[in-house]
Amino acid sequence: MEDSQIIKLYWDRDESAIRESDAAHGAYCFAVAMNVLANHEDSEECVSDTWLRAWNVIPPQKPDRLRSFFARITRNLAIDRYRKRTAEKRNENMNTVIDELEGVLSGTESVESEMDRHELTASLNRFLGSLSVRDRQIFVRRYFWCQDVAKIAEEMGLKRNSVNVMLHRMRNRLKAHLMKDGWEV
Fold it and tell me: What integer pLDDT is reported at residue 92 of this predicted model?
């Protein structure tokens, strides 16, 4: 089923919207959650919670890209669930991802309270648009999907060390880009 048809089901308050969303985007959302949580059951719950959240926000929202919309919801739910876990159960990969971006986006909460979130999003989108397709894929896989560096390297036919170096350089470029746009980093 087409995304526009699924959105219409949500707007019509037709419960089959959830079934169709899961059929069309469930596996993708599950992969996003697994990359954050590394736990099958928790990831399944996040995907289920994604459909509930979508049901509650569509309408009034009418997303342009349903897959990205669902992935963002799933990722946020997975990160919230991850933060609630006890220290010994934490996903070491997620700790690393958070640590890597901390130096670039530290103080994001205060930035969001002082500045319009839309402007920061636009700045990040401009940065992503300035990257090559390969670099953008690596950046998004690491910092949106929270994929392990070894998995990124394997799937993209690169060496792990090369991916680490590329990510380091991209974080430095992001920091410089944000500073140029007037953000405190």
Answer: 62
